[in-house]
Write a structure and sequence with these properties.
Largest sheet: 3 strands, parallel
Order of helices and strands: EHEHEHEHEHEEEHEHEEHHE
Number of helices: 9
CATH architecture of the largest domain: 3-Layer(aba) Sandwich
Distance between the termini: 33 Å
Oligomer: single chain
CATH class of the largest domain: Alpha Beta
Bound molecules: glutamic acid
CATH topology of the largest domain: Rossmann fold
Helix content: 25-40%
Number of strands: 12
Radius of gyration: 20 Å
Structural class: alpha/beta
Length: 281
């Protein structure tokens, strides 16, 4: 049966977009276009301290330059009541707990983690008998408690096939931050469902994040989209493109007169500008 696809591009306006974003946006746009669907733009600006209006303006200009038509942008900062309702639901079921640890506390508690491995939260504040909620705190999901009532969870990736979700490996993830009313994991899961997204196209760096999103979908009674995690790109220096590596920004290419539609066609044809490569998994 033919069903129209709803895909989305969901950048965070905390920096300028690079070629990897352009590739992701082209893939998401074309997936919807090929299936008579809709292509959404969601600005992931819950991080009020790092999001900037000038980055939002550049994202809009970049997409227009690439020739990627999208629906009117939706801003996560305007959707906070949705995330609050999901948090209330989980809190009422005793699946959340406040955590008062600082980054330094967590780093010290996980000092035995292999060098270079990202510290997994060791559960220090789980089961604290009494909490003073006037102190700065985030809210974490009690993943162990959450999983007790659920069958094995799986999700589908267009390349990897069926994936058994293993959210435990990532520890008790944060769902509401100290400095923001929701975390990426919560907001993205709630929004993909609320916006009727059928197909999530995003970089392979978020592959394991999908385990957490699948768990949240099960807990909140939300549908599970199809996932399409694409490889990341490396730049001329061999490094993965990321804002922090100073990858050439789309804005700079746009301003220097590069033809954005031609660039989108190049990416569509599976080609990359000279010097860029697909990173090994
Ligand atoms: N906002 C995320 C980012 O810019 C992407 C979210 C997603 O596609 O799920 O990395």
């Amino acid at each position: 049966m033919f069903t129209a696809a709803v895909s989305r591009f969901a950048p965070s306006p905390t920096g300028r977009l690079h070629l990897g974003h352009a590739w992701s946006a082209v893939l998401a746009h074309d997936l919807a276009a090929a299936r008579g669907g809709r292509f959404l733009l969601r600005i992931e600006d819950i991080d009020g301290t790092r999001s900037r209006p000038e980055h939002v303006a550049a994202i809009l200009a970049d997409l227009a330059w690439l020739g990627l038509d999208h629906e009117a942008p939706v801003f996560q900062s305007a959707r906070l009541p949705l995330y609050a309702a999901a948090l209330d639901d989980l809190r009422a079921r005793a699946l959340l707990y406040p955590c008062f640890c600082t980054r330094a506390d967590i780093a010290a508690a996980s000092a035995s983690a292999p060098h270079g491995a990202e510290a997994v939260y060791p559960g220090t504040c789980r089961g604290l008998p009494e909490c003073d909620l006037s102190r700065p705190h985030c809210w974490r999901l009690d993943v162990g408690a959450a999983l007790t009532s659920l069958d094995v969870l799986r999700w589908h990736d267009a390349t990897a096939g069926w994936v058994a979700a293993g959210p435990t490996a990532q520890g008790d993830v944060i769902l509401a931050r100290k400095d923001a009313p929701a975390s990426y994991h919560l907001a993205v899961t709630v929004d993909d469902a609320a916006q009727g997204v059928t197909d999530v196209v995003r970089g392979r760096d978020l592959f394991r994040a999908t385990d957490i999103h699948r768990l949240l979908q099960a807990l909140l009674g939300l549908p599970t989209p199809r996932y399409h995690h694409h490889p990341l790109l490396t730049g001329p220096d061999g490094e993965r493109l990321a804002k922090r590596h100073g990858a050439p920004a789309l804005a700079a290419m746009r301003e220097s007169g590069v033809d954005g539609r031609a660039l989108a066609s190049t990416l569509r044809a599976g080609l990359l500008p000279t010097g860029f490569m697909v990173a090994n998994a």
